[in-house]
Design brief:
Length: about 700
């Protein structure tokens, strides 16, 4: 379990209940008319609120010192004021000026779900992500949003008919080669990173900016936190292990260090597993996070993480019932991300960054040795210029280098890829109600010796104070997966065209969004590769003749107003998709897609006992699976998927320190989910792919040393 998730969780919840300063007031226009739903917040904090129908607002914060108060409202100029916080109440009367030439806080949002502390009019926030589901994982929480799939047998974010490798994770504009822990057969791994490392999260289900590439379906763009707010030391005691962290804040810099050890062996003794573990997963995580405020607008960031782990297991050999295959894995991951951003000459912004990820995995499958080594470098520079009014021109470039090596038994392969890209994009606000983003991206791949030009277009039209229409089109390219490039370099860029149209309403307490889309895939990589050994299909040549499509509708509703202390959201997706790629003999619905998915997330704060309780229910219709005995390729479908999970956070005081006791249970009702079937070579025997356990439970105690619980 990623320790940072829970340690950051302590800080956020403790900050939420320590009200040392009350800030209240009224927001109105220049005619003294109240402005309901205006966003009021302290910059670089999680503290803020929205104004009521009469324009009044009130919230509490534990922050002390000088902070910038930001007020924004659609159609009006943003307001900022430096205020000094102590223990005395602040009352402010603020008048906003109507914006005659700018679009204000309207955002170009076709295909995107944003969670941000800087933009308060968003669909989700970082705290929403970490308190959703049973495992506090970014990717699991995003699976409750429309456009995603519920995949239980492997890791990855599967978006609108796209495979896992068609979604890229980007941290501070640096692409992460491997954002997940190493996986084992038919068991998914969780993400490496905590939601609370990030002040902003933009999950784009399609039609994304020209600043990003190498993703046919989706990008998850994460912006990390700035300076740590204060000194904080915390320890954690969990059923899975233990750890600790410390954040030190100086005047213009901060450093956070943390480490954790996990061992699932004792837990598996209590929570019986279907998986035959020979050695339960065991490992160590550590990280260092440094921030330096170089000037009033400049920030230097450096983040380093390291993890090691090993495990072993046995799984059935369907070709020999009396025999079980042995699998052993040892993995290491090292990741460094450094970047600098600043505002120059009042209307220029500069971003420059570099990252490197090193992934090493050594496997043993019976008597065969296997493994892979990846070294992935990324460097990027982006410059933005305010050209007029609220319109901007952004341009820049990036270079990526991947050194990939893999082996299995006596077979081994390697390649070195250098990927170059340049981009130019303009955000233009034509009127108060109409804005557009027009961009182009050029890319070159050394390993396949190909170049492309990718246009991107997005437009937003505001219908009223809270609602707008959005449209996006874009062409997106991606080099074939490394599993193909080990066999042949005779490939083109894979490509997809996205067409997206949506309507959205974002009020102060309610959100509604409906989006329709169409994706057309071209030049998908085909070929019989080692990752597909069990389809019992004829050999397929290595070519770029694959194709496909995906179309559907996504619906999202969120409500924080109807019920006291209750926040809930509902999402639904319909997906129609087929593709011919890898070793498929024809156009077919892939195994990782379901036509209907549905999720509902509900959270209830119980002030009498200082506890938050959350429920997450997910449903998906059955997905296709390969049955060699059925002449129709991928003609069988599994049973429907259902899951109901519970989590509870109890705020209390132990050892004179603020403490959170966190408890979660996955699959409370014990749904017998089956993700598919494995078959013997001759197709005579099969075995269902099941979750490692019918139910899973977690309990942990997280202690913030020196903090006092007001309850």
């Amino acid at each position: 379990m990623k320790l940072l998730i829970t340690l950051s969780f302590i800080f956020i919840l403790s900050s939420a209940i320590y009200g040392q300063t009350k800030i209240s007031g009224k927001i109105s226009d220049e005619s003294n008319q109240p402005l309901p739903g205006a966003n009021i917040y302290l910059k670089d904090t999680y503290d803020g609120t929205s104004s009521e129908t009469d324009g009044t607002f009130s919230f509490v914060t534990e922050e002390e010192g000088e902070f910038e108060l930001i007020v924004s409202f659609v159609g009006y100029q943003s307001y900022s004021e430096k205020i000094t916080l102590g223990k005395k109440e602040k009352f402010l009367e603020i008048k906003l000026k109507e914006e005659s030439t700018e679009l204000g806080t309207v955002v170009i949002s076709a295909g995107s779900f944003e969670a941000s502390d800087e933009n308060k009019a968003v669909i989700l926030r970082p705290l929403d992500i970490v308190t959703t589901g049973s495992d506090a994982d970014i990717y699991s929480a995003l699976e409750t949003l429309p456009g995603t799939q519920q995949i239980g047998e492997t890791e990855g974010l599967f978006v609108r008919g796209g495979s896992a490798n068609e979604t890229k994770t980007i941290i501070d504009d640096m692409t992460v080669q491997n954002p997940f822990y190493s996986s084992v057969p038919d068991i998914p791994s969780r993400g490496r990173f905590s939601a609370f490392q990030f002040k902003g999260t933009v999950f784009s289900t399609g039609g994304y900016s020209a600043q990003y590439g190498q993703a046919l379906s989706s990008v998850l763009v994460l912006k990390t936190q700035d300076l740590a707010p204060k000194n904080l030391t915390a320890i954690s005691i969990m059923a899975l292990g233990f750890g600790g962290s410390h954040s030190q804040r100086w005047e213009n810099s901060s450093m956070s260090v943390e480490a954790g050890y996990y061992n699932l062996g004792p837990y598996f003794q209590i929570q019986k597993q279907r998986t035959d573990w020979d050695k339960a997963p065991e490992g160590f995580d550590g990280s260092v996070n440094y921030r330096l405020q170089t000037s009033k607008t400049g920030m230097l960031k450096a983040f380093l993480s390291y993890s090691i782990g090993d495990l072993s297991m046995r799984f059935p050999n369907l070709d020999s019932v009396s025999y079980k295959n042995y699998f052993y894995q040892k993995s290491k991951n090292f990741f460094v991300n450094s970047n600098y951003h600043d505002i120059l000459f009042d209307d220029w912004t500069l971003f420059a960054g570099y990252s490197v990820g090193i992934d090493n995995e050594d496997d043993e499958i019976d008597s065969d040795l296997a493994g892979k080594d990846d070294v992935f470098h990324t460097a990027k520079v982006t410059v933005s210029k305010n050209i007029f009014s609220n319109s901007f021109l952004t341009f820049g470039g990036e270079v990526q280098n991947l050194d990939h090596k893999s082996f299995f038994s006596q077979l081994n392969g390697s390649f070195n890829e250098t990927y170059l890209a340049g981009y130019l994009e303009a955000d233009i606000f034509f009127t108060n109600d109409f804005a557009g983003r027009i961009g182009v991206r050029a890319e070159n791949s050394k390993v396949i010796d190909q170049t492309n030009i990718a246009p991107r277009l997005s437009f937003a039209y505001r219908l009223g104070t809270y609602d707008q229409l959005n449209f996006a089109y874009g062409r997106f390219y991606q080099t074939p997966d490394p599993s193909f490039l080990l066999y042949s370099k005779n490939y083109d860029f894979e490509n997809s065209d996205h067409y997206i149209f949506n309507y959205q309403y974002i009020g102060s307490e309610r959100t509604f969004r409906i989006e329709v889309y169409y994706k057309n895939y071209g030049k998908l990589a085909k070929g019989s590769v080692q990752s597909y050994p069990n389809f019992n299909l004829p050999q397929v040549d290595y070519t770029s003749t694959g194709r496909g499509y995906a179309k559907g509708i996504d619906i999202f509703w969120r409500d924080r107003e109807t019920f006291d202390y209750v926040d809930y959201w509902v999402s639904y997706s319909y997906l129609d998709t087929k593709r011919d790629y890898k070793n498929f003999p024809k156009l077919a619905t892939p195994t990782f897609t379901a036509p209907h998915t549905f999720s509902i997330v509900a959270k209830r704060w119980i002030p009498e006992i200082a506890t938050q309780v959350g429920l997450t229910y997910s449903f998906a219709t059955g997905r296709p699976y390969f049955n060699p005995n059925n002449p129709e390729f991928l003609g069988d479908r599994g049973k429907n998927y259902q899951n109901l999970s519970l989590n509870a956070s109890i705020l209390t005081n132990l050892f004179n320190s603020f403490t959170i006791i966190f408890f979660s249970v996955d699959n409370i009702l014990g749904y017998e989910n089956i993700y598919g079937y494995n078959y013997s070579t001759d197709g005579s025997r099969s075995a269902p792919i099941l979750p490692p356990a019918l139910r899973t439970a977690f309990i942990g105690m997280f202690i913030s040393l020196g903090e006092t619980n007001p309850y």
